[in-house]
Design brief:
Number of strands: 10
Number of domains: 2
Radius of gyration: 24 Å
Strand content: 15-25%
């Protein structure tokens, strides 16, 4: 190898850049729509990458891929989505009654949009239209501990989106939506502001509270950008030395 330092620098840059090009981690979207007459539609959206050992680096299933996927394999994906949902999400009504959604699964684009372009990422969208049991007064969901991804909790009532939504992590329970007023029964937590961050910082004894929020190291450094910048600098130095030597 004529220039091991240059090769090592390129390798370091490639390693640093790999996390930057990874796809965003998928989540499970659970959307409910309530009508005044008690009609209830539950819709669930799952990215097929969720079934992979490492969804963060797994490639999207695109519309072009779906076009060459055998029908048998497509049915297996739908069955996997059904089992996956049952394993990671529980639907809860108040007063408690058994709820076993019978979702009909289809291949769609994001947010139940139709697939159009070959590069469109494919989602598995399950829909269940039913009627609320008599006497139901509240609706919520649980992100079961068996899951590894976040669950998005969205609600629509009487044709309008409920402004409050939640991101649930495994083991967490959503707020209860009152099915009479179609409003949350509990208040949302206060938003994160500069003042609240300063308060947390003071309570922590002066430690850098922003580190936990922005993902930086305790001394304010950004590990990935710094490493990439060092690699680029090394490459430039090597190239300049080669140019002078010539």
């Amino acid at each position: 190898m004529k220039n091991p330092l240059l090769s090592l620098s390129l390798l370091a840059l490639a390693v640093c850049a790999t996390p930057c090009v990874a796809h965003p981690l998928p989540d499970v979207a659970v959307r409910a729509n309530f009508e005044q007459n008690g009609e209830w539609t539950l819709q669930v959206e799952i990215d097929p990458r969720s079934f992979q050992p490492d969804p963060n680096v797994a490639p999207y299933l695109t519309n072009a891929d779906l076009g060459v996927t055998p029908a048998e394999q497509q049915e297996k994906l739908k069955a996997t989505a059904r089992d996956y949902f049952q394993r990671v999400v529980e639907v809860v009504l108040d007063p408690p009654v058994p709820v076993k959604p019978e979702l009909a699964w289809e291949f769609t684009a994001v947010e139940n949009a139709p697939l159009k372009l070959p590069e469109d990422p494919v989602m598995l969208t399950g829909t269940w239209r039913t009627k609320l049991p008599a006497g139901s007064t509240g609706y919520s969901i649980k992100a079961l501990p068996a899951g590894t991804l976040s669950v998005l909790y969205h609600n629509t009532a009487l044709g309008k989106k409920v402004e409050r939504f939640q991101i649930l992590f495994p083991g967490e329970t959503s707020y209860v939506l009152d099915l009479k007023t179609f409003t949350p029964r509990t208040k949302a937590p206060p938003p994160i502001t500069a003042e609240s961050v300063e308060a947390v910082d003071a309570a922590a004894g002066g430690s850098d509270a922003m580190c936990a929020l922005c993902g930086t190291s305790a001394d304010g450094g950004y590990l990935l950008p710094t490493a990439a910048a060092v690699a680029v600098i090394v490459i430039l130095v090597v190239m300049m030395r080669k140019k002078r030597a010539a």
